[in-house]
Amino acid sequence: MQTAIATVCLSGTLEEKLQAIAAAQFKGVEIFENDLLSFNGTPTDVRRMVEDLGLVTSVFQPFRDFEGMPEPQRAKVFSRAERKFDVMQELGCDFLMVCSNVSSDSLGGIDRAAADFRELGERAAARGMRVAFEALAWGRHVNDYRDAWEVVRRADHPAVGLVLDSFHILARGTDLTAIRSIPKDKIFLVQMADAPVLSMDYLSWSRHYRCFPGQGELAVDAFMDALQATGFDGLLSLEIFNDRFRAGSARSVAVDGQRSLLFMLDQLQKRTAVPVTGLPVLPPWATCQGVEFVEFAMDERSASAFEHVLTGLGFVKAGTHRSKEVTRWRQGNINIVVNCDKEGFAHSFNITHGPAVCALALRVDDAPATIERALGLLDQPFQQAVGPGELDIPAVRGLGGSLIYFIDRKSGLDRLWDRDFEPIEYSNGDSAEAGLTTFDHLSQSMFYEEMLTWLLFYVSLLDVKKTPVQAVIDPGGVVQSQVVETQDGSFRLVLNASQSRHTQSSRFLTDMFGSGVQHIALATTDIFATVEQLKVNGVELLPIPENYYEDLEARTDLSEEDLSRLQAGDILYDRDGAAEFFQVYTKTLENGFFFEIVERRDYQGFGAANAPIRLAAQTRLAPHPGMPRL
Ligand SMILES: O=C(O)c1ccc(O)c(O)c1
Ligand SMILES: [Mg+2]
């Protein structure tokens, strides 16, 4: 399969777009007409630029409002087409994509449209060119790929073919069966786009919310299965109109595009056991069994304050690194690593970001295979010097320049705590353990424009599912929140981003000079006992207003005793059927970071209903300078 990407996907000037496309290892490019019109140079200059970058202009598009026009407009559209063929000749492109007519002047009728395409095909063929027809979901007469196919079939010309654009087909919920019986050599182009499920007019949905396959919720896989049944092996191109992509980094969005194709096509060949020509087979999705540790990059001053918090939360110092200024803190199955070393990655991270999470370590089935898959998906590998006798734990770059380590049993990487650390023996008796058992979830705050990048990063590498995006109300604006999690819940990650500068999530980005882990939720099996112990340990919890408990009383059947226990502990509560959820928060620590403690009783969510209460409580304690005081 040949793959390509449309210039319309990316931000920047045409030159920047093409450079980003070449850097992301694409070969083919669809030049969107507006990118040519706004370019300050001739089509020949563009041709040279494309060639110098080792690219090929696979498609020029779109040619609009063509078929079914009455005279005198009909004569005009043909002369307009000839002008575009001239441009394409200069551009070195032999393929014009025509989208269905939206003009109120256009006349319906499959045969009329077919006759127009036959004539256009004749004219194109005279120049050694080809044309293909796409049904826009909002086309005036043709808005269904089956009608576009009938037009192409009746045009019956070798230079006239069909375009299948996954968005237009899936957005309308058109039945995919008919794709299977289209002869593959008449499908000249497949355009790929995913999108979130929204109820909105097709045009606005398409022009602002498309995204790369894997980032949205459309049935892209079913579309690919139907396409594969035809034996299609032609040109498959990404065509995304997305406001965030237009505001994001062209280079990183282009890499995301390549990653999404590698991921989608690899899934296709795994699902159907039919190899995709020219595509390497990736190791399977990495099975993640949870978080082995979270590492904080600290200096000595912040480390001592942080270790005081950890002690309050019931952690004990369980080991010191054999060659670095690094300690391991432990409670239940939770490991927190505090790195104060004066050299290496964590130190540089601390200099840039201040005290913050610099790495996560995930437990996987097979760490070498995970890294191989990551590299195959164009993720960035990371390596640094390893001390003698210490384990070389494979890692990739994650959010905000942080690291993700992969630890498995197979390669013996799980011996980390004995190999690299000198264990500290402690007796359980005199510790102030608070009954915390595991990492429940982590939340990462990021720039709004990079949210889809990291979503794709996680879903392509790990066997995780994503939930639909939720809008969470913060006193300073709206935060978009989306979860990726394993089926069994052993790994749960919340991605947060906001377009307002005043939300807590945006303020965190300013505080730590970049995106990162803003909060960590730790699990307990008895929230009331845990809260009691935290109070004994002197941990300050986030105060929750009385109104919240008044409302709980009104909308639940909790007993007065339960309600007063919740209120006394500043515990938030949620219920889903018979499932129950309890949450408490520490006050916000240095750099905008905080801990949450949760108890789940069969509950699968994250207490979304409580998030605005918590955000308001946090904002009250640390108002934003630019915001009115609450
Ligand atoms: O939104 C549009 O106008 C438009 C143009 C060209 C396409 O290929 C398409 O899918 C949509
Ligand atoms: Mg299209």
Automatic annotation (TrEMBL):
Pathway: Aromatic compound metabolism; 3,4-dihydroxybenzoate biosynthesis. It catalyses: 3-dehydroshikimate = 3,4-dihydroxybenzoate + H2O. Its cofactor is a divalent metal cation. The keyword Glycosyltransferase does not apply. The keyword Transmembrane helix does not apply. CDD domains: HPPD_N_like. Its EC number is 4.2.1.118. SUPFAM superfamilies: Glyoxalase/Bleomycin resistance protein/Dihydroxybiphenyl dioxygenase, Xylose isomerase-like. One of its GO terms (biological process) is 3,4-dihydroxybenzoate biosynthetic process. Residues 290-409, 438-587 form the VOC domain. Coiled coil: none annotated. Keywords: Isomerase, Lyase, Metal-binding, Pyruvate. A divalent metal cation binds at E134, D165, Q191, E239. GO terms for molecular function: 3-dehydroshikimate dehydratase activity; isomerase activity; metal ion binding. It comes from the Bacteria. Mg(2+) binds at H441, H519, E596. Belongs to the bacterial two-domain DSD family. Catalyzes the conversion of 3-dehydroshikimate to protocatechuate (3,4-dihydroxybenzoate), a common intermediate of quinate and shikimate degradation pathways. PANTHER family: HYDROXYPYRUVATE ISOMERASE, XYLOSE ISOMERASE-LIKE TIM BARREL DOMAIN-CONTAINING PROTEIN. This is 3-dehydroshikimate dehydratase.
